[in-house]
Amino acid sequence: MNYKTPGAYIEEVSKFPPSVAQVETAIPAFIGYTEKGELNEPTRITSLLEYEALFGSAKPQTGISVTITDGVATTALVNSNNATPAAFKMNYSMQMYFANGGGPCYIVSVGNYSGGVVLGELQAGLAEVAKEDEPTLLVFPDAFSLEDDSYVLYGSALQQCTDLQDRFVIMDIADNTLDGVNDFRGETLVGDLKYGAAYFPHLQTILNYEYNDVDVVVNASTNSDGVAIVAEDLAALKAENSGAYSAAKNEIASSLRVILPPSSAIAGVYAKVDSTSGVWKAPANVGLNYVTAPTVKVSHDDQEGLNVDAVAGKSVNAIRTFTGKGTLVWGARTLDGNSNEWRYVSVRRFFNMVEESVKKASERFVFESNDANTWVRVRAMIENFLNLQWRAGALAGASPEDAYYVSVGLGETMSAQDVL
After folding, report:
1. Which of 53, 113, 135, 160 is deepest in the core (most CB within 10 A)?
2. pTM of the model
């Protein structure tokens, strides 16, 4: 300080080293179609209620028929073009995400329900997410509708992860069969495979389809007294026979359940495991809420083929049902399954967290003098952070020296020319 007059002066001297603040690890960005909302504008939300207020509900399902015989209802999706379950799964996916432990996330609406699922629109939404720093996971609830083109989209997402090095892609298998897994492995994905993981199969959920009564066809039928019902749709049936209407509604609720790709539920599992154990814990051996069963039963022998792929190297994580345990996530491998370093999701995501945390904390030193004083402060800051991770169980080793090292300075990370 430059003292210009006599007096008492206080000068605070920093005695503690700077610290590294751990960044958030499970902030997904869901990119897809919504009922309403601003297009291609990443929006942060924290609850399902907030999602529905900003982005609306699911697209009403059409092609549902009901037959009522002697007051007993049976129902089905009509065998017609309209019977295919709606391609837009964002609303249902958000329900699965929050039910399985999800927290804050970003929503990128790329369109409404007026058209179909378009690759270019999803890629445009992906490009907008690249401008956001906070998201650490990428999820595409509607990508399965693109079939094989979904892997073009996943390749673009992997490339974004490779470029930014702070996020991870959760993928679905478009063709929900074991043969579909083989087709997936035959696809060329641009970007680094260590930044993504795929899960199989799709999930039978307890969620009910959204629908409008007027769109539900009532077939020729009779009530409990054997009297013919003349109503042609559920809305008319409500006015004609309330008992038959209730029976039809109950039948639809119990027999027609939404089938979803697993990525949204897995994003919730990542968030739950990160908050309860740590990002270094494998997000596996965890039960799934709102799920009755996987749509494909995966045997032990099937999973051996999913885990290890000697040709393409793409590991696929299985979701399996076990007696007395329910439906569990039974795999935690990245797509880079043949790598000794980046085989596991927990390892890749832990390094993402460390790299991003250290990078942000080190930005304060960018324009400091490149001398030993700065190097010592940087080394101490990072070593303190890694020591906390080691003590929490994230790093193996009987001592800190066995668990990690920090290199910085002349002769270690830079030459005399670099210093100049």
Report:
1. 135
2. 0.93
Summarised one tens digit per residue, pLDDT across range 195-213 is: 999 999 999 999 999 999 9
What tens digit of pLDDT does each residue of 356-409 get? 999 999 999 999 999 999 999 999 999 999 999 999 999 999 999 999 999 999
